[in-house]
Amino acid sequence: xxxxxxxxxxxxxxxxxxxxxxxxxxxxDLTLIDExxxxxxxxxxxxxxxxxxxxxxxxxxxxxxxxNGRIVASSAIDITETEVLTAEGRLIPYDYLVIATGHTDSVxxxxxxxxxxxxxxxxxxxxxRSILIVGGGPTGVELAxxxxxxxxxxxLTLVHNGPRxxxxxxxxxxxxxxxxxxxxxxEVKLGExxxxxxxxxxxxxxxxxxxxxxxxxxxADCHFLCTGRPVASSWLRRTLLKSNLDKRGxxxxxxxxxxxxxxxxxAIGDITDIPEIKQGYLAQKHALVAAKNLKLIMDGEKxxxxxxxxxxxxKAVMVSLGRKEAVAQFSFTTxxxxxxxxxxxxxxxxxxxxxxxxxxPNATLID
Length: 367
Ligand SMILES: Cc1cc2nc3c(=O)[nH]c(=O)nc-3n(C[C@H](O)[C@H](O)[C@H](O)COP(=O)(O)OP(=O)(O)OC[C@H]3O[C@@H](n4cnc5c(N)ncnc54)[C@H](O)[C@@H]3O)c2cc1C
Known about the structure:
CATH topology of the domain at 7-35 and 74-105 and 230-314: FAD/NAD(P)-binding domain
Protein name: FAD/NAD(P)-binding domain-containing protein
Strand content: 15-25%
Keywords: FAD, Flavoprotein, Oxidoreductase
CATH architecture of the domain at 7-35 and 74-105 and 230-314: 3-Layer(bba) Sandwich
Structural class: alpha/beta
InterPro entries: FAD/NAD-bd_sf, FAD/NAD-binding_dom
Number of strands: 19
CATH class of the domain at 7-35 and 74-105 and 230-314: Alpha Beta
Helix content: 25-40%
Function: Putative FAD-dependent oxidoreductase.
GO molecular function, one term: flavin adenine dinucleotide binding
Bound molecules: flavin-adenine dinucleotide
């Protein structure tokens, strides 16, 4: 006789939560709670903004890969020892809980709305003469690359408060990216920040003046914020997991990816305090370790059999520069141009990510 399946609840259907859900759906009585009905591949967002058809493969309804589990499209707002409470007032019981809420983001609830949003952003870019990008980390650089290649006639300014672009990678890679942007006529201002006000809406009828910390003015018809987002853990401060958060709001986990001192609660992805850079491909590795450990525990295996997660230093970091080029930093060298571009920039790993979720890499099924 089949053993009763244990109730697993995953909160957050992003990079880590979606892969975990897909991996354990036939081994558990599974519920995925996510604020939205779909998974968006985050690193494909900028391409989808300059080419909305790209979003048809990178925005995936949870139901497409999760055929054997419940999906609750709502925010989790509280946790007790046995249940999760959602914003809509539903109580969802669990035997095992996984927190995978990553970083905060403000995106629409349905896939159709998300695709429409890309369309709106694309029209905004198309009708602007001048565009300001605030933030010169990898996301700001990648967005500048997409716009510079697909809309070469735009006057593009990127303002970054640090002394160089992308401080998380080496000087060589940062200066290759800077040279590439400059060659595409992007004006890059380093060591200054844009003074932003709460009411900084783009002006529908024309140009706006943005002030910088150095007293300069930047004219732009529209602007995009590419500054860091906070960890999505403020809601956890009101729950029984509040004492498991570190000073930066990250959940403290042990080597098996269990939240410390909690046998039936795991955390994966950007929300964890694992000392490594916060990247999607590492979040996917967390998901696979958590999947293995949950299966072992639910099968009644010994604790000593659980897999340990070792924090990693990435072997390579790649930043795309438009559709064909990229800069790649390896431990032994840094290269830029069309060779790393062939690896990352053409498809932005969208086919590969879809495949991991058991989907056709190239399908473009619309709702
Ligand atoms: C523009 C951009 C480009 C990037 N480029 C790369 C790259 O090239 N390579 C790379 O490896 N990484 C990249 N990253 C980083 C990567 O996307 C993250 O490391 C990864 O998404 C982390 O996965 P996660 O599952 O922890 O969180 P997320 O993917 O952020 O998912 C969190 C999920 O939780 C949901 N959620 C949040 N709060 C709640 C709540 N209270 N209740 C219910 N649901 C909730 C959210 O809606 C979301 O679905 C990029 C990120 C961005 C934004």
